[in-house]
Amino acid sequence: MTYLGHLLAHLRKDLRLEWRARDSVNGMLFFALLVVVVFALAFDPTAYPTIARQISGGLLWVGLLFASMTALNQSWSRELRNGVLDAHRLAAAPASAFFAGKALANFLFVTAVEVVLAPVFAVLYNLHPLGRTSVLLVILPLGTWALVGNGTFFAALSLRTRNRELLLPLVLLPISAPALLAMIQATTAVLTGESEPGLWINLLIAYDIVFTTLCVLLFDFVLRED
Amino acid sequence: MLPLAAPFATANAAVTLDRVSRVYGSFAALRNVSLTLPEGASVVVLGENGAGKSTLLRMLAGLLTPSYGAVLLFGAPPREQLHRLAYMSHAPMLYDELTGAENLRYFAGLQASPASLTVEEALSRVGLDPALPRRVGEYSQGMRQRASLARVLLQQPDLLLLDEPFSNLDVSSARHMVELLGEYTTIANAEGRPRTLLLTTHQAELARPLAQTTITLEAGRLKPAAA
Q1: Which residues span the domain enclosing B120?
Q2: Residue B57 counted as domain residue
Q3: A84 lies within 8 A of chain B by CB
Q4: Closest Cα in chain A, distance from residue B55 (Å)
Q5: For residue B3, is it within any domain?
Q6: Domain contains B141
Q7: ipTM of the assembly?
């Protein structure tokens, strides 16, 4: 089987597991909606549309970051159950294809949550972007990949630790800080129309390329380590 | 050189352990174990809980590295021989959310070469219906164990490592498994070379028909015993 074949086999498997269990997407969606609603109640964004535009980018991405972390741990817990991870450690298929398949699956799960969350968010915060809305179609996938690419890797890294649910945010948040800054600034630039998001999008692209390459290259060590 | 080298002196070694120890913190699970098994050997490892049986098998499978000493399979480190071995642990190593057939198809696709048996053949051999729509999470413990055996039999590996394969089986299922494994050891691989079987159990009576050689582990040390 080719590398792409292996990657697709892992992706199909993860999609099928989620379709049958529905625990990751449901958990993420519930959490993200809760964050959005709680902040909407706390700040009353409809009364202050300008402020709402300035803070909405941050609220959206922080909500998605925390929501995705619940799914990232969940996606690896499935591999620990029944000792399945050992079967992967013994498999001839490239470890990086396993990582890439899982990261892609997580990307699709978070994207599905975004598709549901975005209209709810726009209504609750009465958002009318002043910049080019279409640019969000570039920012959202780049930002999502920055979250789940690293997140999938570091969730795997913390798999064998006793406090993995605590360790993941401790490791992931500092490393995601540059990406988080870029995605928030780019989104805010689109919502307020006060600046061009180009620089921040370029930073996100560079971040995604560098960290995806590192994760793919290093995942074999993470998986095989005893 | 090694305690069990003499009976197999003329054969090619499938498994060689040279003064292997595995230490967890201050606890030594295996202590200075030396062992040589020829290709075609059918070996039963006996021992109490905590004797080091699972550690030994995980080390042979390449899932653990020795703290001291060296492990060789067919003359090379285990990680270089993954295509020639299959390992079945206490846990079924299958996804609860997939059916037995879906699990086997998925894992067969991750191997270096196409599976020697079809998924249907492997499941039928262990007495499971390949068309069974139930997910593994809904299987009984015994069915999980059999599905797990089907997974390792798919590739018909040169070296089969089984950790407590009879632990969740009733007597008739266990006897059926012993028959299957007996057949496995008698069938040569594609190159005409004999297959090697190494299993751990504390049910010595059940495994007796497979025990060409029996070895006993006691507190991490190897005690040679007559077959």
Answers
A1: 40-62+83-225
A2: yes
A3: yes
A4: 12
A5: no
A6: yes
A7: 0.87
